[in-house]
Amino acid sequence: MAFSIKVNGTTHAVDVDGDTPLLWVLRDVLGLTGTKYGCGIAQCGACTVHIDGDPVRSCLLLVGSIGERAITTIEGVGSTQAGANVQKAWLDLEVIQCGYCQSGQIMSASALLSKNPHPEDADIDAAMAGNICRCGTYVRIREAIKRAGGEA
Amino acid sequence: MNQQAGLSRRGLLKTSLAGGFVLAFRWPVRAAPVNEPEQPLDHPDGQFAPNAFIRIDNTGKTTLVMPQAEMGQGVYTAIAMILAEELDGEFSKVVIEHSPSSDKLYGNPNFGIQVTGNSNSIRAFWDKLRAAGAAARMMLIEAAAQQWQVDPTSCTATDGKVAHAASNRTLSYGELADAAGKLPIPDKPRLKDPKDFTLIGKPLKRFDTPNKSNGKTVYGIDAMVPDMKFATLAQCPVLGGKLKHVDDSAAKTIPGVRQVVVLDDLVAVVGEHMWAAWQGLDALKVTWDEGPNAKVSSADIWNELRAASKKDGVVAKSEGDVEKGLTQGERFDADYELPFLAHATLEPQNCTVRLTPGACEIWTGTQVQTRAQEYAAKAAGIPIDKVVVYNHYIGGGFGRRLEADMVGSAVRIAKEVPTPVKVVWTREEDMQHDVYRPAYRDTISASLSNGKIIAWKYKVTGSSVLARWLPPAFHDGIDDDAVDSAVDMPYDIANKRVEYVRAEPPAVTTGFWRGVGPNNNVFAIESCVDELARKANMDPVAFRLGMLDGTPRLKAALKLAAEKSGWGSSLPARVGRGVSVQPSFGSFVATVVEAEVDDVGGVHLRRVTCAVDTGIAVNPDTIMAQLQGGLIFGLTAALWGEVTIEKGRVQQSNFNNYRMLRIDETPPIDVHVIKSGERPGGIGETGVTAGPPALRNAVYAATGVPLRRLPIDRAAIAMNKA
Predict the structure, then answer these.
(1) What is the DSSP secondary-structure string of B222-279?
(2) Do B214 and A87 touch (CB under 8 A)?
């Protein structure tokens, strides 16, 4: 069955079952591999994308349920102010190690900052606790979110 | 550190690369360009390629080929810094490439094979990379001097240019590349005096992170090959079992499923995308012949391990008279245990394969490029040189990608598939078909006199990873990794003995896990030393300082960590500070963890302070990042990590039942890097090893309960038990 989805401002027709998780449509059908598979059960956050600006785990989001809503991925988030600020802060503070989780971390952080430009520690905890980093970059993630907020 | 010393001492490994730097070669450099695996491998002519690591073309483009794998530890940047330092190249413009598979060109000098592990990259390649950079620099200077007909010693090199100040002339490395390429390679390249370093020692930005922040970095799992299909697999849930029967009738009705591949020991479903393949796999009705391990449980494994630990071990180290020492002073006996652990790299295992008649291409992220090549060749039934491995950035290695099983199985599947195929493991498959950090039991007898340990008898019982992974390195019944950081434990003790009992568990394959042997030994030693301090009625830091005169770098680190942590200042009830020290991987690390234990035994990390002397800190920011991250990796294991077996099966399957530390549980972590002119030590695993004993000792301080097993037993430290 064919669906029409709008990813980073571009509309794509995809011929998949409606119950296919968005993650696999992005990665395997559209070739947007920046969004990562980590767990498949919304435990790790590596697959986080924005749906109309809200952070969503694409591993459990069925493509047939999205409709007209705007999908933003790591490939497109730099065109938003919050996303660009987060990416810059991430590099300024050299947050990233292996980097595999960082697409999801950056998506969660930019969604947080777009709604709350100056988050407290508790806000950061609430927004980011769903994103696992196996390399353990959390100390710098916290610092970088504050840095990015300062630049908002 | 001890492990490599032991290996080379016994000469059991290939030694062709171990004898120091030899630059008597000029090979055609074949490398896999980063993120461009489709690009032809043969390099264009007209390049200055004096060794396997450096290529300069006549536009001045400087390409550095990375002999080690980048898995987040920052090694590409550090290697580039060392090469560019001695080359005097234009650092900001260098281009980084993954190396192709070659033990000869890119073998780790400490292993003799191409492997990234044991925190060995910078330690092992330090001399070789410096000499490679310096030789290239000397040749470029010589080329300029010949052109100008001046004495080369009157020329200088900086930032990709050679200058002759007296005549105010300069030539760029690009302009000199052709001429330099025709010159002989110097036998003894002149290395810089470290005081003249301009790159090494600076917290420079990493090369790999910009593309990791915008989704452009290509990991193995992201490889895309024309006409490729997607597959996922199920291996027998019990180690050693075989496939008996597959009913694929339901799977074949799922849209997007193309093929079911049935092999002896696994079944795979090939689809138009991963989801189709996965749905197909779930729809299979598979019957396994579970084999001899079908009834094994963790209880059986622990019973066997505990029984084995009662045997005498093979003596790995003996000094003084330990039996006599144990009869003097006050005796103390304790046993410590560590569980099996999974790696849980966030990038699940994967491998993409394209088979063409007589040849095989592999896209994956591996810590062992040549092993991946060998596994592929064997599975494809073709010669090794017909396999090309395109290595990738690695989404977490931690030792899991020191194995090539995922390559072998992917090629076996690909042989049945008419198109190229990407095989991706589900998280569940990844967690349940890992090679696991061995479970260990450590048996310690010690005696105390006048506030010092006077005798120390230490026995490690557990699986030998080395015996499987590098059989020649297992020698005389001793696994050098299993006793690493035990045979070289840092305290001044006159009488000591270290023994090893090899005990292989059923139903579990063991493997290297970030922190390797020292994880176990530092935990047991530092836990026991804390108990001995209490028995001696001494402060744990003061007790350690009194026995560290023989290891002054560690003593200095301990003093610094204690000072920075506020050691000795008062804390609320059920909050404690714990300390650990270690000389592991050639780095000297002291760590203080401050933690609170709540009424029901929940453990809350409040603060971590760490001091490290790692010798010359090539990139101090990377050193700090590795310790911050390594500490979290180790603390995660101490708090929750345990893989258990029932009916021969691994019970944990995903992050819901194999817990990771999360940001809301992460405390501030301060790392203090001590300035040092010593040779660089290893750093990638030090934090992992440091965290668990310091946390265990913090819980001991907070509750008085001497935990002797990880992960932390909440019930044992709940309020009513303390």
Answers:
(1) G---TT-EEEEEEE-SSTT-EEEEEE-TTGGGSTTEEEEEE-SSEEEEEESSHHHHHH
(2) yes
Report the DSSP pairing between strands B330-338 and B440-449: antiparallel
SS3 track for B21-58: CCCCCCCCCCCEECCCCCCCCCCCCCEECCCCCEEEEC
Q: Which of B205, B273, B275 to mutate to test the interface with A (most CBs of A within 10 A)?
A: B275
Inter-residue contact B543 to B536 (CB < 8 Å): yes
- Set of chain A residues whose Cβ sits within 8 Å of the Cβ of B669: 139
In chain A, the residue whose alpha carbon lies closest to the alpha carbon of B631 is A136
**Could you tell me if A141 lies within 8 Å of chain B, comparing CB atoms?**
yes
Q: Which residues of B touch A73 (CB under 8 A)?
A: 215
CATH topology identical between B220-291+349-424 and B299-340+436-721: yes
**Percentage of chain B lying above the pLDDT 70 cut:** 93
Residue A3, chain B, CB below 8 Å: the answer is no
**CB-facing half-sphere around the CA of B257: CA atoms within 13 A:** 22
Gap between the terminal Cα atoms of chain B: 39
pTM of the model: 0.94
Conformation bin of residue B320: beta by default, left when phi > 0, alpha when psi is -120 to 50: left
Which residue, among B640, B118, B108, has the nearest Cα to B344 in the 3D structure? B640
Q: Which residues from chain B sit within 8 angstroms of residue A35, using beta carbons?
A: 215
Q: What is the pLDDT of residues B269-290, one digit of tens each?
A: 999 999 999 999 999 999 999 9
Encode chain A (152 residues) as per-residue pLDDT tens digits.
789 999 999 999 999 999 999 999 999 999 999 999 999 999 999 999 999 999 999 999 999 999 999 999 999 999 999 999 999 999 999 999 999 999 999 999 999 999 999 999 999 999 999 999 999 999 999 999 999 998 54
User: Beta-carbon neighbour count of residue B314 at 10 Å?
Assistant: 16
The residue written with tokens 């501030």 in the block is: B668
Tens of pLDDT, residue by residue over B352-374, are 999 999 999 999 999 999 999 99
- Residue B576 is predicted with a pLDDT of 98
Residues facing residue B63 across a β-bridge: B55, B95
Which residues of chain B does A30 touch, with a Cβ-Cβ cutoff of 8 Å? Answer: none
pLDDT (tens digit, 9 = 90+) per residue, B557-587? Answer: 999 999 999 999 999 999 999 999 999 999 9
Contact B49, B97 (CB under 8 A): no
* Structural domains of chain A ordered from first start: 2-72 (3.10.20.30), 77-150 (1.10.150.120)
Nearest C-alpha of chain B: how many angstroms from A66?
A: 17
The ipTM value here is 0.98
Domain boundaries, chain B: 2-211, 220-291+349-424, 299-340+436-721
Nearest of B76, B365, B97 to residue B209 by alpha carbon: B76
Contact B209 A124 (CB under 8 A): no
- Is residue B597 a contact partner of residue B574, using CB atoms and an 8 Å limit? yes
Tell me yes or no: is domain B2-211 CATH 3.30.540.10: no
Pick the CATH number of B299-340+436-721 from 3.20.20.140, 3.30.365.10, 3.20.20.70, 1.10.287.130: 3.30.365.10
Looking at residue B66, the DSSP 8-state letter turns out to be: E
DSSP B20: S
pLDDT grade for B556, boundaries at 50, 70 and 90: very high
Torsion over CA: B213, B217, B221, B225 (sign): positive
Tell me the nearest-neighbour CA distance from A81 into chain B, angstroms: 14
Q: Compute the average pLDDT of residues B609-622.
A: 98
pLDDT at B600 over 90: yes
Identify the CA nearest to A50 among candidates A35, A30, A33: A35
- Say whether residue A97 is in contact with chain B using an 8 A CB cutoff: yes
